Amino acid sequence: MTLNFRQARRAGHALSALTLAIAASAVLAAEPVAEVAADGDTEHVNVVGQAVSMDKAIKEQRTADTVKSVVSADGVAQLPDENVAEAAQRLPGVSVERDQGEGRFVSVRGLGPDLNSVSINGTLIPSPNSDTRAVALDVLPSELVQSLSVIKTLTPDMDANSLGGTIEVKSLSAFDHKGLFYTGSVEGSHDDNTGQNSPKVSGAASNRFSLGDGTDNFGVAAAVSWGKRDFGSDNVETGGDWDFEDGAKLEQFEQRDYDITRERTGAGLNFDYQADDYNSYYLRTLYSRYKDSETRNAAGVEFADAQAAGESGDSEGWRELKSREETQKIQSYVLGSEHLRGNWTINAQAGWSESSEDSPGHIASATFEGTDDFNSGFSSTTKPRLNIGSEFYNPANFELDSVEWEEQHTTDTEKNIKLDFARDYELSGNSAQFKFGGKLSRRDKDNDLDSWVYEDFDNFGITDDELSLTQYTKGSVHYSLDNFGPGISASAIKKLLSRLDRNAFYDEEQSRVNDFTMSEDINAAYLMHTVDVDAWRIIAGLRYEGTEFKAKGTGIQDGDYVASEADSKYDHWLPGLHVRYQLDKETQVRFAWTNTVVRPSFEQLAPGFVIDGAEAEFGNPDLDALESSNFDLGIEHYLNKDGVVSAFVFYKDIENFVYNADLAGTGRWAAFDEANTFANGESAELYGVELAWQQKFTSLPAPWNGVLMGANATFSRSDAHIEGQGQKRDIDLPFQSDTVGNVMLGWENDTVSLRLSANYKSDYLYEVAAIDDKAHDLHVDDQTFVDFTARYFLTKNLQLSFEAQNLTDESYYVYTGSRAYNGQYEEYGPTYKLGLTFTHF
């Protein structure tokens, strides 16, 4: 018997409901499941968290029409991960960019985060950051997520705005459970670098109700999460200020100490209504608030003449404070419905999402300059240590030079309406489906920055004694990489500024040039046809996306302000073909040819500019969108219910990739010494192989039947070409890692669940220097993170957990040209967590 598409969908829903009923507490609670069987007075508790997670992910991957990797909610909780970004990095081909040791932006198949898209419950999530499209997934607590998927080949009914992959996040639904369910967790963590302890609490609940003539046809699910983490890092960086003309000599470097409090609050409230067998409705809501309070103390020197390691000479010294509070919010509301009319299925959805970043008035920089030169030098070119006398650590030798005060607010709003029609029918005795639809998307991005620069204090009645650093010290800075000296008090700086008329210090140039408004309207439509012929499943279709982009801002040319506006329209026709062939019951081959389009980042499109004499710096609103033709071919073999092994090769032919460029000496900028902007590269290629394996060894005798293992690796290469100043050179694609891999070893029995995991990402090109200065390209070094988690059921409802992150104390290292020369080095240390979870199911 051949199932038509609607029957297959209903069968899939039934299978999913059965699986989720078995795993009831794991899904919503994001914890392992406890099964209880009474035998007289004996109570049997069976941990099935890791096993259920693997089963669900394998089933979804197996039946997907795309090349797709999945981690379910219980899988997220099984991993020692602070947020959704770190959970995603366990998937094949996925890695993350870390900030302060914590995962933020997701990279797929080694490509940069701006080349991916993120959607929650089917609607695009805009970025709260002012300069990027990439969504920092650390704003989403993992407790609010039911499933996380990375889709690497897009069908025509999906948004075409990703090159590496589309990250799909789905939140909770009451129809994933039977009856009343609730859970609550408390957790404490310890940051080894700072010695700080931090709390976290979360909870979730769901239930079904009967409305009208229906039975359990209305569902409500809710989840909340709150956590506050105190942590920090120690940093030393040169910024790439090396002089390579006469050996390798350093011009300046800086020590930095970060002290951070990070608070997350998340909530989700979802409603589902099955009106009858033919009509269903849903409302998905998600709110996340991420607040960072950061204090950064810095101390540095600039040598009068560039110096090699071990040399000494005159230098200027400084000490600096940055103190700011930054709040990022993400809101998402999705209203949708599905209607069955004979052989037709109609899906309608409206989505509204908004991301924002608010940085109220704060000290962007308070700089104290040394009153005299210091005799200094440094040792080590990779992790420079300062060789300097005790006078550098005496606050009496520093005087306040300037204070930069800033306020900034960014908002990114995305509204969309989507309508899909699908008709099931038979084509020559084979199940087939014709699908078509469209989507209207309206996106608005704005940035508002106000800046004040306080300097020349003696002109405003401030005495030399009042400018001495001795008036602003705040104890000694705990800095593990070297000696540091006194910290700077933010409250003392603010007290000084309160005595001054801030209108006299307003920086109109910075304030106006960095303000912008941008709008991006996308109209999309598609046709898609699917047919099953014996062991073949073939999907062919065409997607159209028309884009209208507008940007407004302000530039400054030799002291005069100039309005800057840009308006562009462009169209893309994007054909696609997906083929899946069933070699046997457990083995299938996949092929996909897809075409995608990625718009440049907002920093790259910024309309503001500064032209000062023979130097210019500006965004480029006229950039072309990046286009890519993608080919994927692979095989998947399923090891019954125990696991899967797969291998894929992929190739991407890319046009119009964007890179940093200096256009001085060309065209309009022929007479300029510098003209720093962004430009489209001619072409680039990315190709590679992706291998994955995971398995449960349930067929082995005890205790080996509790073993779970997994490993995946992606090996890729990229070739890109850039030009400028009449020259050309070859580079790797920025942010592209040649090798990404994961290894996991787990074990579980009736009451205990253990997992040890490691994630590796090879080095990548971070920033391109001038076309003729490859030696100053910045690269991020390879990283390996090792984490461990253990869970134990004290009773059938109560679970104790222990997690350890970054056991190897991995650092973050940026190098200049080659690994021997520091760009930036930062240490974070391990983090340990202890938690307790109660679950009713």
TrEMBL record:
UniProt GO cellular component terms: cell outer membrane
Sorted alphabetically, which InterPro entries does this protein's record hold?
Beta-barrel_TonB, Beta-barrel_TonB_sf, Plug_dom, Plug_dom_sf, TonB-dep_rcpt-like, TonB_rcpt_bac
Q: Which Gene3D superfamilies match?
A: TonB-dependent receptor, beta-barrel domain (2.40.170.20), TonB-dependent receptor, plug domain (2.170.130.10)
> How the protein sits in the membrane?
Multi-pass membrane protein
What does the UniProt keyword field contain?
Answer: Cell outer membrane, Membrane, Receptor, Signal, TonB box, Transmembrane, Transmembrane beta strand, Transport
Top-level taxon in the UniProt lineage: Bacteria
Q: What is this protein called?
A: TonB-dependent receptor
Q: List the top taxonomic levels of the source.
A: Bacteria, Pseudomonadati, Pseudomonadota, Gammaproteobacteria, Pseudomonadales
